[in-house]
């Protein structure tokens, strides 16, 4: 029997067909998802955009201190310090910010010797070795006795603050020094004799106290509010660089202080890599090799100095000294990225500088025991114009920081009386009278508004052409020049202790591109 169109059975609906209710439900869910996505975009976009702009802006990125686990957002990218492409004249205006128990005394004596032999005006403290009237929070520069022609140098103890720019020339170079926070903590612990105060004995006293770090931040154990406790709370190195107590890079004020340091400071000396730092300083300042010679000052030894801390103690130290670890890690990476960009020739100069410094120190020790000894001649070469080392050179290298204060005061008194010191100095490898100080027209004393530091206007911009970027050369194409021979009678230095340029870079394991901090 034939079936008509009206009598045919209906086709069954496909399994994937959806009724109207299900369709409306899906549409509602889709609309809800769109709204949620839009809200996330609105709230997250400013943060993401800020990070994107920071990545595109030169010198802006993120960095993280080694082992602290705290991300420092908006910090500058690991930069490279710039050395002068050519040196027409040395830079004689500079400020060195002392960091306590970080090797500052050695650097201060070296800088005072440079300033003295170049007739530079140094700001001296009224008494002692610290510029307390500047260091104190309420002090200003208004009482500063104004020198004819202005000042050239600050090396005495003070906390870095922007006010120092008001009394220094616009072309002043700023730099400081940092020490591995683990070594710095042990040095501070020994210097303030905390082990004796707490009755701690043994070979590793500093590590023992870090098993219970609360003893360092309260009055238990008889420490009280000692200088040591205050320093530990504040991250002592960061405090000297202008950071406040208990600061963290999560705080806007700390980020501002960090930007000021990286903007104002031409470089940062790293104590653990002192030779590399001083050679780089010589290049940045256009100085001579003889200007960065030094003898160690204020070096102390104690039983736990070279004993590494355990993981638990080190972790506790990073918690209470967080910002010091972050600063040290950042500037240590900056130093080695700069060195890598300069190529193996730089490390060849470092090796030569070490040999010369050891040779000079050995010569000065011989002078103490021998009545007559020939002068030490450092011949001209690739990294020096040549100079003579004699008894006066050794006497200056051995002077302590307070001795340099006395010499500057005596010179100033002689100038006031109109007398001449008839000093002798090294000039291009010869001895002769010190050249008279350059005649500089008296500069008017700057007017400093008496207002709180946080209300000071932003630093003025100096229109100076930026130096050309560092040219990163391939290691294979750089020659390794022979080290100039040092002419001297006596013992020879051991040259086997110095590794090659490639070995040093391999040991440091500095990557071509330093990784960003993990989120």
Automatic annotation (TrEMBL):
Residues 421-431 have a biased composition (Acidic residues). One of its GO terms (molecular function) is sulfotransferase activity. Residues 456-470 have a biased composition (Pro residues). Pfam families: Gal-3-0_sulfotr. One of its GO terms (biological process) is glycolipid biosynthetic process. It is found in: Golgi apparatus membrane. Residues 496-505 have a biased composition (Basic and acidic residues). InterPro entries: Gal-3-0_sulfotransfrase, P-loop_NTPase. The chain crosses the membrane at residues 24-43. Keywords: Glycoprotein, Golgi apparatus, Membrane, Signal-anchor, Transferase, Transmembrane, Transmembrane helix. GO terms for cellular component: Golgi membrane. It comes from the Eukaryota. It is a single-pass type II membrane protein. The keyword Glycoprotein applies. Residues 418-519 are annotated as: Disordered. Belongs to the galactose-3-O-sulfotransferase family. This is Galactosylceramide sulfotransferase-like isoform X1. It comes from Branchiostoma floridae (Florida lancelet).
């Amino acid at each position: 029997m034939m079936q008509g169109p009206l009598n045919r059975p209906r086709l069954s609906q496909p399994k994937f067909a959806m009724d109207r209710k299900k369709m409306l439900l899906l549409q509602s869910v889709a609309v809800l998802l769109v709204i949620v996505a839009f809200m996330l975009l609105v709230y997250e976009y400013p943060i993401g955009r800020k990070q994107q702009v920071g990545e595109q802006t030169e010198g802006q990125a993120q960095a993280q201190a080694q082992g602290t686990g705290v991300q420092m957002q908006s910090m500058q990218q690991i930069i490279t310090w710039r050395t002068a492409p050519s040196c027409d004249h040395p830079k004689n205006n500079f400020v060195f910010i002392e960091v306590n128990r970080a090797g500052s005394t050695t650097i201060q004596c070296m800088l005072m010797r440079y300033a003295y032999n170049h007739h530079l005006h140094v700001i001296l403290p009224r008494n002692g070795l610290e510029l307390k009237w500047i260091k104190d929070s309420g002090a200003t520069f208004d009482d500063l006795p104004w020198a004819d022609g202005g000042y050239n140098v600050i090396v005495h103890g003070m906390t870095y603050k922007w006010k120092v720019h008001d009394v220094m020339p616009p072309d002043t170079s700023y730099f400081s020094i940092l020490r591995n926070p683990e070594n710095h903590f042990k040095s501070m612990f020994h210097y303030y004799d905390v082990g004796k105060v707490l009755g701690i004995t043994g070979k590793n006293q500093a590590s023992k106290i870090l098993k219970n770090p609360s003893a360092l931040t309260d009055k238990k154990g008889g420490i009280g509010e000692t200088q040591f406790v205050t320093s530990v709370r504040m991250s002592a190195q960061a405090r000297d660089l202008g950071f406040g107590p208990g600061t963290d890079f999560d705080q806007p004020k700390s980020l501002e202080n960090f930007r000021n340091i990286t903007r104002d400071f031409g470089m940062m000396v790293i104590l653990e890599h002192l030779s590399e730092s001083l050679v780089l300083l010589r290049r940045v300042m256009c100085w001579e090799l003889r200007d960065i010679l030094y003898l160690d000052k204020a070096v102390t030894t104690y039983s736990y100095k070279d004993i590494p801390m355990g993981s638990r103690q080190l972790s506790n130290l990073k918690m209470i000294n967080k910002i010091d670890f972050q600063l040290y890690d950042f500037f240590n990476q900056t130093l080695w990225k700069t060195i890598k960009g300069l190529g193996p020739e730089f490390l060849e100069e470092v090796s030569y500088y070490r040999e010369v410094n050891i040779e000079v120190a050995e010569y000065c020790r011989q002078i103490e025991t021998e009545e007559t000894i020939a002068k030490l001649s450092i011949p001209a070469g690739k990294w020096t114009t040549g100079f003579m080392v004699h008894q006066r050179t050794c006497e200056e290298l051995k002077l302590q920081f307070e001795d340099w204060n006395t010499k500057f005061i005596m010179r100033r008194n002689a100038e006031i009386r109109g007398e001449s010191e008839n000093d002798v100095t090294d000039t291009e490898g010869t001895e002769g009278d010190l050249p008279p100080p350059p005649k500089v027209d008296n500069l008017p004393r700057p007017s400093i508004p008496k207002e709180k530091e946080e209300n000071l206007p932003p630093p003025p911009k100096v229109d100076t052409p930026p130096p050309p970027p560092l040219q990163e050369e391939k290691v294979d194409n750089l020659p390794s020049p022979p080290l100039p021979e040092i002419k001297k009678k006596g013992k020879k230095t051991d040259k086997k202790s110095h590794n090659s340029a490639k070995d040093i870079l391999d040991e440091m394991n500095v990557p071509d591109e330093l990784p960003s901090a993990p989120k």
